[in-house]
């Protein structure tokens, strides 16, 4: 169960990682739960758990993470574990230098250029013209979870909003287990900002250059041709340049 897995990880993280090097481990929702919500699979992936079971009927953020991970191998249901896990090593969450990842810390630069065919809330044909803005966030190793950035809204333009803002930069300490979440929302001056589209991308699958990101809705269904145009650059990050 997830509670036992998390307990083992906190009490014996090194033993847990070494155990998963040579043994199959399956985590699953607690049997007494009545809701179909999902738990965060990343802490269990970081420990090397090979079978992290989720409620597929619930299209929430944990399922987006799961889809992003297995999209790296054509959604076949198998992705090779990270090199440090195959060696039975641990990325120490209390070590800000992540010594087991020396030389692998990356700087990810994302320049948001424009959007195309951004839908109205619920993909509706009715309602006011949207004021879209974009939120970026990194999920993954605890040292990477704090990275987030938000653009300014573009007023009254869902058809072809143009941002062309300065690039945002994320320092990714554990790129093998990092995910970039992108959410397009409608800015509201009076109420709650509504999700217009989203996408989750595993860091190892990111390619540099000009890229088109096709959005999905809250049920993870395609909103094509709704998309974002971005420019991506990745480089090695020097340890001394990494903020605490």
From TrEMBL:
SMART domains, per the entry: C2, PLCYc
GO molecular function: lyase activity; metal ion binding; phosphatidylinositol-4,5-bisphosphate phospholipase C activity
Coiled coil spans: none
Domain named C2: residues: 86-217
The keyword Signal is assigned to this record: no
Catalytic activity: a 1,2-diacyl-sn-glycero-3-phospho-(1D-myo-inositol-4,5-bisphosphate) + H2O = 1D-myo-inositol 1,4,5-trisphosphate + a 1,2-diacyl-sn-glycerol + H(+); an N-(acyl)-sphingosylphosphoethanolamine = an N-(acyl)-sphingosyl-1,3-cyclic phosphate + ethanolamine
Cellular-component GO terms for this entry: plasma membrane
GO biological process: intracellular signal transduction; lipid catabolic process
EC number(s) recorded for this UniProt protein: 3.1.4.11
A Pfam match: C2
Keyword Transcription: no
Residues in PI-PLC Y-box domain copies: 3-86
Keywords recorded for this protein, A-Z: Disulfide bond, Hydrolase, Lipid degradation, Lipid metabolism, Lyase, Magnesium, Metal-binding
UniProt enzyme class: hydrolase
Name of the molecule in the record: Phosphoinositide phospholipase C
Organism the protein comes from: Medioppia subpectinata
């Amino acid at each position: 169960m997830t509670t036992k897995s998390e307990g083992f990880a906190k009490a014996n993280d090194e033993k847990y990682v070494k155990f998963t090097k040579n043994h199959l481990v399956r985590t699953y929702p607690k049997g007494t739960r009545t809701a179909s919500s999902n738990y965060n699979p990343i802490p269990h992936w970081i420990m090397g758990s090979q079978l992290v079971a989720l409620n597929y009927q619930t299209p929430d953020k944990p399922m987006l993470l799961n889809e992003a991970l297995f999209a790296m191998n054509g959604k076949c249901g198998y992705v090779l574990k990270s090199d440090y896990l195959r060696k039975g090593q641990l990325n120490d969450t209390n070590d800000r230098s992540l010594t087991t990842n020396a030389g692998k810390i990356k700087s990810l630069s994302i320049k948001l250029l424009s959007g195309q065919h951004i839908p109205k809330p619920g993909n509706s044909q009715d309602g006011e013209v949207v004021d879209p803005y974009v939120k970026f966030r990194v999920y993954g190793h605890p040292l990477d979870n704090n990275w987030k950035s938000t653009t300014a809204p573009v007023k009254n333009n869902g058809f072809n909003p143009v941002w062309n803002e300065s690039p945002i930069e994320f320092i990714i300490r554990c790129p093998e287990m990092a995910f970039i979440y992108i959410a397009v929302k409608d800015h509201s001056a009076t109420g709650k900002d509504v999700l217009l589209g989203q996408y989750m991308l595993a860091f190892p699958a990111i390619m540099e250059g000009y890229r088109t990101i096709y959005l999905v809705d809250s049920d993870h269904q395609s909103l094509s041709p709704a998309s974002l145009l971005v420019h991506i650059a990745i480089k090695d990050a020097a340890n001394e340049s990494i903020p605490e």
